[in-house]
Write a structure and sequence with these properties.
The radius of gyration is 20 Å and the shape is globular. The protein has eight helices and 18 strands. The relative contact order is 0.13. Strand 6 (about 85-90), helix 3 (about 105-120) and strand 7 form a beta-alpha-beta unit. It has helices at about 25-35, 50-60, 105-120, 135-145, 160-175, 220-240, 245-260, 305-325, and strands spanning about 1-5, 10-15, 15-20, 40-45, 70-75, 85-90, 125-130, 155, 180, 185, 195, 200, 205, 265, 270-275, 280-285, 290, 295-300. The chain has two domains: about 1-155, Rossmann fold (3-Layer(aba) Sandwich); about 160-325, L-2-Hydroxyisocaproate Dehydrogenase, Chain A, domain 2. Helix 1 crosses helix 7. It is about 40% helix and about 20% strand. With about 325 residues, the protein is of the alpha/beta class. Catalyzes the conversion of lactate to pyruvate. Its EC number is 1.1.1.27.
Length: about 325
Amino acid sequence: MTVQAPGDGALRRRTTKLGIVGAGAVGATLAYAALMRGVAQNVALFDVNAAKVHAEALDLSHGIQFVPMAHVEGSDDVEVLADSDVVVFTAGAKQKPGQSRLDLAESTIGIMRAILPRLVEVAPDAVHVMVTNPVDVVTHAALQVSGLPPARLFGSGTVLDSSRLRFLLAEHTGVAAQSVHAYVIGEHGDSELPLWSSASIGSVPVLRWRTSDGRLALDEEARTRIATDVVQSAYRVIEGKGATNYAIGLAATRIIEAVLYDERRILPVSSLLEDYYGISDVCLSVPAILHAGGVGDRVEVPMTDAELAGLRASAEAVRRTARRFGF
């Protein structure tokens, strides 16, 4: 998009602004990934810890020479996010080893309640992406607290989980992860499920992929092991290093690109469902079309009866938690 530059009659390309709430491990890594990929010309970080957010912005700024040109700023004043095109919410309680995402809900919702209304004031036209866990419950709560339309506020959902699934399938079958096409849907958490029936490698259904000696590569035992590994991946990372940050930073950056570039890319984000296979009034991850306005049509991927039952069970698990907090 081009706009008239004031005074000189020249045309200038419109700049884009990415706002990030939280300068912790995820927020700072997200800013780094966004700069490396040249996602936005302006990156703004907000955190209540002034020393931390200023230091992160300064450290990132010192590397601007080596990435596509951008401006970075950080502040403990929410005004730093004014006029952002996309605001990503990463602030929240830190997940501890052995703690489920749903255990984080109470403290994280409290943080979101305190900050989100002001975010909407300073960036009224932004698309808001919730990354903080438990992302499905937080996204549902954020919609009610903010009053924003469901298209303009959604969660990162199972975009990362789907990437983990594709990585594990690639490792198991000996192909590039980029050639694997598979989704994880439902809760971003313990009740999520892979859609095996629609997964493919190249154009070959994964359930028909064979090893070099002609055996089916993904029998029931292999699928169960891989699905369990996907769910437990975050717990293993947290146990070993205290937080997940690199992969979620890259996943969130991919979501931001789809919005800022109006790509109409299909990604399994967490959004408010209305009659998706009969499921309504709950935020869950299903494949959806992302564009400049946020999240668009949800894609009704064909499912087996078992997969649909799993999705409904996942929806009920998220609903139970949301009800505990009045949502």
